[in-house]
Amino acid sequence: MTDATPQWAAPPGQQQHSQQQAQQRPGYAAQPPAAQPAPTAPPQAPASGGAAVVSPPPSAGAPRVNKFNRIAQMEEKVLVTRTRDEETEDGRLVNKEAMTKIRDAWVYKRVRSRVREFTSYRQALCFVGTWNVNAKGKEESLDEWICADWGQNGQYAPDVVAVGFQEIVDLNAVNVAVDNKTQQRSQFWVERLNATLNSPSRTQNDPNRGYVLMMQRSMVGLLICLFVKNPHRQRVKAVSADSVGVGVMGMMGNKGGVAIRLNFYDSTLCFVCTHLAAHRENVVGRNADFMNVLSKATFDVGEETVRENIRNGSLSQWALGSGSLGVADHDIVFWLGDLNYRIDESLPTETVLLLAERGAIDKLRPLDQLNIERSEGRVFEGFQEGILNFVPTYKYQPGTETFEQRPDKKLRAPAWCDRILWSAQEPAYVQQLTYKRSERPNCSDHKPVYSTLRFTVKDVNAQRREGIYKELFALLERYDNRSLPAISLDKSELDFGEVRYNQSVTLSLRIANTGPSCASYRFVPKMDESILCKPWMSVFPTYGMLVPGEQPGVVTVTVTIDNNTAKLLNAGREVLKDTLILRLENGREYYVSIKGTFARSCFGMSLDQLVLYKDPIRTIALDAIQRAEQFPNENEVSPSNALCIPKELWRLVDAMYEKGLSTPDLFTNHGNPEEVEQIREALDTGSAFGVFSIHSYAEAFTSFLTSLSSPVIPATVFPNTEINAENIQAMTRRLLEELPPIHYNVLVYIISFFREVLLHSEKNHLTAAKLAHICLKHCAPADVVMDSAMMQRRAGMSLILIHLLVTSSI
Questions:
Q1: 225: nearest Cα among 293, 144, 146
Q2: Residue 657 in contact with residue 664, Cβ under 8 Å?
Q3: CB-neighbour burial class of residue 143 (10 A; exposed 0-12, middle 13-18, buried 19+)
Q4: Among residues 118, 230, 159, which one has the least CA distance to residue 14?
Q5: CB-side neighbour CA atoms (13 Å) of 694
Q6: Mean pLDDT across the stretch 105-110?
Q7: Do the bridges between strand 160-166 and strand 119-132 make them parallel or antiparallel, or are there none, so unpaired?
Q8: Which of 726, 724, 50, 20 is nearest to 452 (CA)?
Q9: CB within 8 A of 355, min separation 6: which ones?
Q10: Do residues 791 and 279 touch, judged by C-beta distance below 8 A?
Q11: What is the rounded (10 degree) CA torsion for 683, 691, 561, 582?
């Protein structure tokens, strides 16, 4: 350990600022950095390195509502208390624990808004690397991978180095169950990293240029190592690690994550290395693995560390009362590993290979599954990633630059399996400088990936911080015990009017403190319930405090009709009515009525319901009694008088016929969201279509099929035996025989339409395999457990659909 002043790494052109105060550490910036439109890369990094492109962040210190922001998360949840409410003689309800937590939250938010008054800032460099070594381990130099961004004289050597490995051992049953070789292989890679970082040619015998291993964590084939530069070692504390297995039986370590967290100066950092579910078609499994690791990884750092982080303005743990932290409880999170996301199955393996070999990454990038899933908000919400400006990193012949195509090996579509992402509570605090793959070492079927990122480090002046806390608590003491609290609400009812499918409507409620003392309030569940409101509604924030004279607090209430809610509303199992209960601690309860009307939609209905009605679905009453009055003649809406297929499906297919089925990239390009919404509205109301793109019709078509409350092809009819040339005819016939009548009609109609689409394949570039993939994706259930048996059954169903598209007879 050295007493020398930390020698921070800094990219060229970075200006050093100092605050003109004695307490300020030399070389620190007085203010956090402003967002910059384009990060400056070290000179040795070519322009193709893939600098991250991010949207301009909001100003520092302003909480944002996203699922990864712990401040927003806590304020969206019910305030949990361990003690019961107490009732006074005059009927008022008091919960001292709740009042304390609400007061602490009020203080915390104001401290956080003033964090610049007691915090100094400095920019540091972090290197993050990931490599699936495929159980290989040759004495091959790691310099080209680990030290690529250091500069000729090491002037850009990073302050923090985090490296993750996957498959350091063979993922066979013995290694997964016994974990007997992991420690040996972990030590091998730790020694290799240590030798690379601390080689005499790099340190030049200067201890300040060397690195120290702060922690390592392994689990079966996973390993993560964290190093910091020697001069920073004294300012590293609360280092902790955890591992989460999500593999076999949802818990074994062949898949999962290992993570390390630390306080670096007064910034909290977390590094997570994961190996997610394999197989091209198993996107749902990868998403689930990510969520499992994110939610289950826990670091037991002790209540003192948690309290200190809270007082520094880094956490919203004041409402938890815990001595442990989760992944999301950090200023910055770096997520790395073999995430296993592939190129979408709509592109045949041979085409992916051809494009990857040509370096045509612009054509592959839009079909990257991780990009697709992130854009849809299904995974890695709140995370950012640089642009993929390098060729896919998987799957190669080991020791070569050639994609694996040997006859004795299974043909795999190249993919960007190996990724690095990050999430920051303040987006301006992280800027990616490089994001690349390394050509060496190359003993694995994966290529190593690395990124150098510049991040803002906080250094807190404890004396100034405590002064702000003292000032705030003194303010609160002036209003303690003056009299009973009083508030007023500007509304007692929120009427959301007509709400459509896939629409969110937000109204606000203003709460004013009308008394001479502090008013603590919170929304509470109704009796015998554990949630504040019905799932289709959200409230933000769910609690707060107002001091006398403070501006009224604003609570936003949002009603959202997603597909699950639409299914319940269409089936008559839900209505848009609820009541919110707002409790004033040491005061009374206020009731806010919530109501709205669902503009009925064909999206989220069942096929059996849709074929009953010849009139536009918007005109059909949701209430069963009103519907009976609407159709006094029961035969008019009986199954015996039903349509063969839903009229909405026919209208969509007819519109695509008219637009022309030879349009290039049909069912591949996205439609215009506004047009898709207008098409859905026309289907629901029976009005004529406007002038829309065929891609918008195609997206409305696939969205309609996906939204059905029961899929066209239920999982129960998936084949249970392996499909081959000998049995495919019989298994296809069996599928058609087992489908319910309406489902049979719809599938045959879709297949007939797709066969017509294939007649234009030279122009629209569609194949039977692509259309079978589209059909399976939107006509089969997506929420089934994707174990190996189900994946095999889905693969069999795909072959049956291809057969239906090309065969001349059943």
A1: 146
A2: no
A3: middle
A4: 159
A5: 18
A6: 88
A7: parallel
A8: 50
A9: 361, 363, 364
A10: yes
A11: -130
pLDDT of residue 53: 31
Amino acid residing at 150? W
Helix axes 741-758, 768-779, angle to 10 degrees: 150
Q: What is the dihedral of CA 615, 618, 619, 624, to 10 degrees?
A: 110
Reported as a pLDDT band with limits 50, 70 and 90, residue 480 is confident
Paired tokens of 248 = 């076999």
**What tokens were used for 74?**
């806590």
803/810 Cα distance (integer angstroms): 9
Residue 597 contacts residue 576 (beta carbons within 8 Å): yes
- Estimate to the nearest angstrom the gap between the alpha carbon of 585 and the chain centroid: 36
Q: Which phi and psi (to 5°) does residue 510 adopt?
A: -100, 135
Count the alpha carbons within 13 Å of 595 in the hemisphere toward its beta carbon: 4
Q: Rounded CA gap, 55 and 76, in Å?
A: 25
Residue 139 — φ and ψ, nearest 5°? -80, 70
User: Under a CB-based contact definition with an 8 Å cutoff, are residues 135 and 574 in contact?
Assistant: no
Sign of CA dihedral 398, 401, 406, 411: positive
Structure tokens at 794: 């889905």
Cα separation, 173 vs 159, whole angstroms = 39
pLDDT over 50 (residue 208): yes
**CA atoms of 519 and 556, how far apart (whole Å):** 19
The residues near 583 (Cβ < 8 Å, ≥ 6 apart) are 93, 521, 522, 523, 524, 589, 590
Percent of the chain predicted with pLDDT > 90: 70
Alpha-carbon distance of 176 to 135, in angstroms, equals 13
- What CA–CA distance (Å, rounded) separates 480 from 473? 10
- Which carries the bigger pLDDT value, residue 632 or residue 358? 358
